[in-house]
Amino acid sequence: MDEQRARVNDDLRGVLGGDVLFEPLRRAPYAHDASLYEADPLGVVVPGRVEDVVNTLRYAAENGIPVHPRGAASGVSGGAIGPGLVVDLSRHFRRVVEIQADRVVVQAGVVLGELNARLAPLGRRVGVDPPGAGVATVGGMIGVDAVGPSSIRHGSFGDAVERLRVVFANGETAELGRELWPTFDEEGIDYKGVVLRKLGVLVRRHQDLLTRDPRVGRSGYALAKAATGVGVHLPRLLSGAYGTLGVVTEATIKTVPVAAAQVAVLLPFARLVDAASASAGVPGPGSSLSACELFDWRLIRLAREANPKFRDWIDDTAEAVLIALFEGDDPAEVSARGSAFAAKVSRGGRLSADPVTVNRRADCDLMIGLRAAVEPLLMRLGGNARPTTLFEEVSVPPERLAELIQRLQVLMRDENVSWVVDAHAAQGRLHPRPFLDLSDPSDGSRLHDLAAAVQEAVMDLGGTAGGGGLVNPLGTPFARKQFGDLLPVYREVKLAFDPMNLLNPGAIVGDEGSPSARRLRLPSGEPPIEDLFPAGNGSGEVSTPSTWDLPTLSGSGEVAAGPIFLPVLRWQGAGPVATSSACNGCGTCRGADPSMRMCPTFRALRSEEATPRAKANLIRQIANGDLDPKLWGSEEFKRHADLCVHCNLCATECPSGVDVSSLMLEAKAAYVENHGLSPSEWAASRVEVWGGLASRFPILANATLGSRPGRWLLERLLGLSRLRRLPRAHRWSFTSRAARLGLTRPRPQEPGPRVAYFVDTYANHFDQELAESVVAVLRHAGVNVYVPARQRDSGMAALVAGDVEHSRDLALANLRVLGDAVRDGYTVVCSEPTAALMIRQEYLKLTDDLDAALVAENTLDIGQYLTGLADRGAFPEPQPLKGRVGYHQPCHLRALDIGTPGLDLIRRIPELNVEYIDRGCSGMAGTFGLQRDNFRTSLRAGRGLLSRLRDDDIELGASECSACRLQMQQGSKKRTLHPIKLLCMSYGLSPSLRRRWKDRKVSAIDPS
Ligand SMILES: Cc1cc2nc3c(=O)[nH]c(=O)nc-3n(C[C@H](O)[C@H](O)[C@H](O)COP(=O)(O)OP(=O)(O)OC[C@H]3O[C@@H](n4cnc5c(N)ncnc54)[C@H](O)[C@@H]3O)c2cc1C
Ligand code: SF4
Ligand code: SF4
After folding, report:
1. Ligand 1 center to residue 138 CA distance, Å?
2. Concatenated DSSP letters for 457-486?
3. Predicted TM-score of the model (pTM)
């Protein structure tokens, strides 16, 4: 750490209660946001209380240090990054202070989606609905004056803000509302009074200019909107100020009723321009129109791919669609409005097919939210070129939208650039995104020219290019052109609040004369992967390159010295550096929406460094030379890698499909290469050894696991939490019993479809009842079951500990036996989702053994296999079983992307009442929650699921994953079973299970 950093770090640590992050790896996650830019901050403060914000700003003012307020950093203009002190309010400022009848008081870090979830039972919500509501914070939405589809009805976020508590640039706090101008002789007694006085003079002096303010969009300060002859609405002025006027700590926001009735109308057009023209004729304000969105041909093609509903709704000849949403309290009236609108547009004769109307809320939400549905597919389109946000948005008067689109079409064609566009059409707000490959210097240099050309087109039509687009390094020239005579006025506004220009300097008004401290966040490339991994020789040995020269492209302008990374996994297509560079910083992985799982550790800790975004970018930052290459394989890096529990969900849920799990496996492996395994990691990675010992010496094992001193000893020696309830050991392993029953001998000559059962360690040593149930159910369905005797542990525990070599050995051992079985016509079936995931996905990364692909293609989860039988009519109907069950889908089953076959199966059991508790991860994450240091975090991460499971109306839990079941039992005190056991009971195949069916009590150590 350099001298200045060290001094500021020491000073701040002395006065702050929150986190102070100055070390390179701790501040690196704050160097980027969802914009195209990055900036290495001096340091990061994560305040715990308002006093910490006050002390930080006071210190910054005394020392002339810039401050950058930060929420979820999902803004696309670079407003949440900068070279000074980043102040992250997203972690600790998350309290909903008060919910009143028509307003709420919330802290700045509250996420809009979570707030709306709290308001939903009261029939209310915040009016504005920006697409990133599941992630964006109240402070950030005030910062950018966020808009969404429904802004046509509810305005921008700033229109809903009534009062603010802020900390000014000098550290003084104030409560802001609608304020009167001070009289001439009134001296400002506090900072707010002084600001008001300066603003009053300014407004009087520039009255003319302000009344002529041509702003149609959100760029610049909203002075014309906020100020009147008698006073100024300061919260309105701070909305859209990008943190340049004060740091918001608390806000009072108006809420609106959730409409009782809604209708969405989709109109397909043969030409984009026709759709834009039609949007000019939508009913105006005061009608029940709540949103009017326009999407181009690329987005609708992707929508048809993403969801079959869009295939039904959008005719395949459509080149653009306009989607209008009408809402109100009277269903008949809302429906009539929708029909009238559709009829009016149809009369224009430019539709390519008939309009489509839906009125169920879920359908309306899906239809109007088309952009969110297609974003992941858009970001995963092949090639290096990505849709690139030049400006947060461009706005023109709505009646000129078609003209603008025509101009942009010509511009992009002349520039030979593909682009994608969507618009909040009735408001004239457009998001044009050219496809650019910023790792290609020629595309990088086009960025500025393209942005200038877009701005010119927009301004010619009386519009603004911005939102906060002017925060970025395009900065000053764009600001000058955009604001003209208003620029000096805006600069005076800024100086009235922040005379030393310390709050987010450069944002809004540019930085005259000084180069921007933000630079383009350039992706890193890497040598083609085939050069790194010569074709496999079939021996199972992985050829690892002896060196891996990094590319010359570097974010810092310097060339990183290679070799740094020696990948131990087999990367298909993009390698680790390119994979990490695929993160566009969107922040979706900060979401806590229950319909998504990514990312369990972020959800538990709520810190930026726990996000997949942070983890992915550390690798890019090392490759770019922004971080010291020596950090790779270090203890510090390992601490970050340990924040990944390898649920594998970012690979499927992240819009760009960034496989952070594999990146962090590389990081852990590099650590193990340098430092070896710690005793607790060694213990965690050898579950098979422990399982074997427990089955040999069950009395000793159970005495140890069941006694306080025993558990204390395990915690001291192996890091296993003494508070964790662990399963009971049995006298025999399932495979040894299977051998006695003759199941370990393949009998291909016998009738029935052939299945090789991969048992895995838990069912083999601790839950033999499960393994027996699997065999019983399969046989009941007429399946020819074989249990390969020489199968080993799946290897996941070793892999996540970073012991790639051991995991690979296990993979190769399993592939030997499973490969033979598959060649004999057997389908491999797993009752443990983690084992299925290992075999289907991870073995392919561990080895180039020729059997890896063969076995992967022929391996299924047991539920998936049985639903396949059911589809073919070969599955016996279950018999009634009375009970109320809460089902949890494990993360690894979700990562397999096969739906919920286990749930579907138990829902077939008559009289069994099954609820799907879709409330996120159980928090156990394999062996993560077993460890002493993670025990409480793991229970916290599973809170959503566990609290529902504890409710009286649920009698039992169900889940396929053994680790999730342990957590569910411990967290709810309710017996939790694998769905196969429920099926087994329903068929009456297991009298012992049936006997225990009514026994809901869970003992300290219990195998269920
Ligand atoms: C795919 C995608 C689509 C998007 N679509 C839209 C859209 O349609 N409409 C829209 O409005 N936005 C959109 N955004 C941008 C973004 O989601 C919003 O701007 C969001 O409101 C930002 O919230 P945040 O918490 O992430 O703020 P941040 O990005 O953290 O901050 C945004 C600005 O607010 C300032 N700020 C943050 N907290 C405070 C505070 N407490 N006090 C003072 N200033 C503060 C920051 O300094 C920064 O200048 C989109 C983003 C993405 C990635
Ligand atoms: S990891 Fe994925 S979801 Fe997270 S910021 Fe990056 S691209 Fe977005
Ligand atoms: S694999 Fe899971 S735990 Fe790891 S970063 Fe991705 S979502 Fe988070």
Report:
1. 9
2. HHHHTT-EEETTGGGSTTHHHHHHHHHTTH
3. 0.91
